[in-house]
Amino acid sequence: MRSRSAALAVLALLVALPATAVAQSPGSQSPVATAATATSALTPPERLDAPPAGHRLTGQQVEAIAARVPKVIKARRKYPRSYPSAYLKGPVLWQASFFSRDRPPKEIAQVYIDDASGRVTEAWTGPQVAWTMARGYPGAFGRKVNSPWVWMPLTLLFVVPFVDPRRLWRALHLDLLVLAAFGVSVAFFNDANIDVSVPLVYPLLVYLLARMLWIGLRRPAPGSTEGAPLRLLVPVQWLAVALVFLTGFRIGLNLTNSNVIDVGYAGVIGADKITHLSALWGHFPSDNPHGDTYGPLTYLAYVPFELVWPWHGRWDDLPAAHAAAVTFDLSCMGLLFLIGRRLRGPWLGVVLAYVWAAYPFTLYALDTNVNDALAGVLVLAAIAFAISPTGRGAFVGLAGMAKFAPLALAPLFIAHRPRRRALAATLACGAVVVAGLAFAAAFGGLHTFFDRTISFQASRGSPFSIWGQHGWHAAQVVVQAGAALLAVAVALVPRRRDVIGLAALAAAVLIALQLGVTHWFYLYIVWFFPPVMVAVLGFHPEQVGALEMATRSRAPAPAPALSPEPASARLL
User: Which element (helix H / strand E) includes 383?
Assistant: First the structure.
């Protein structure tokens, strides 16, 4: 009983923490502090000693008010010769920025001041000066998905159906709790506390990496039944009904209460350039100057939607981005059902589609209208076509031409059985990559393409990793080298050679790569989440619903199967 209470307490904490952060205003900021405020244009006043027209404060008064803020005083102690500059920020706000005397100058502090009251509404130092996404503005990512009335029920729906009261300490429970625990990090992120939110991610990633390697490298003995049956608290038919309602809810929330961040906006811009046969890389507009950091397939994927809902040259509602995000989301759900159905039968297809629909982070990605679920789609497609060397090679190549990192999966998928046809998988993957590079050469040139994508991503700084926060560059190189070695090693070492093993090791490689990146964000979870669930849930040979548990426990043991071939061989 105590163990059950402890497990329920952990689950309650995981559910409640993200909602607690949402219920508070980020960093105890004023309601004035919104993402729109952060992006308002700056205008230097004509004079610092006189109020501009329609304003009460002067620039000098604004600078003096900002200089008295405690965190600004602390920041300026590190830069004794720093100096202020005052700017008008929209019709009612001022911004005071403090710069070091370095060459070029570095902005070390930023303060927003309400003109009417002279009150400081926001004050930022450190990385949050340059990174507005680190300030915890309400609704900046996904809007309503951060509400406790959305996040808490989804977390419960994701975990509770798979709780086995008879075996609380089974590995599946820990797997689900770890996946849900990313929400604890989001809680601190939404509270603008990235010094806590960022380090919390790494133990979770390391656990999932170890778990996927354990599943992928552990070869079951011939004729073994692998894991224990998957015991559901409710009949799988209930999950099917819930899946229908969750799908409608997700689409409805996307259409009525979601936002398009720069990632989705970049896809629409790129699609517009393609349809107009314009240069793509190196020619993005000023309101999204680094939107050209993706592979060619990312922009091509947006073309059908941009043709139906053309871009109007500005960052408006961008219906094409919404349509693309919904399509990527539904495609992941459909592929998970297909893989599960082939692997164990329709029940596993329903379960896999359900966990995608119930997991808060897939809705987080959907309601920011980003392209990250596209990576999930292409990796899932490669798994679904595991039986075809040409198919799996082509889809791995497509994934690499969308997001680059999935190219690290090529050795694993090429070496998948039948190994005698590895050349076909290699040629298919290579043909897709060559076609993608040819496209890049035609729409900007290979040099510009490399400079704006791989080179930019490799050289950018970011406070959203422990490497970027602390400057641990030597340790980062070791982790990155380890990820590269892992990507090759999993193709060579003895391993589980069915679809479950393939999904587990694919997830392991993606997680290892993410452990070493300088810029990591929660949207990247949807890259590895689908193969993780295929591996974790597919590991169980059958499902037992709540109504069947008692009957199963009293029934005599079934006779051994006539064929020792595991059900997962159906996809091979």
Answer: helix 372-384
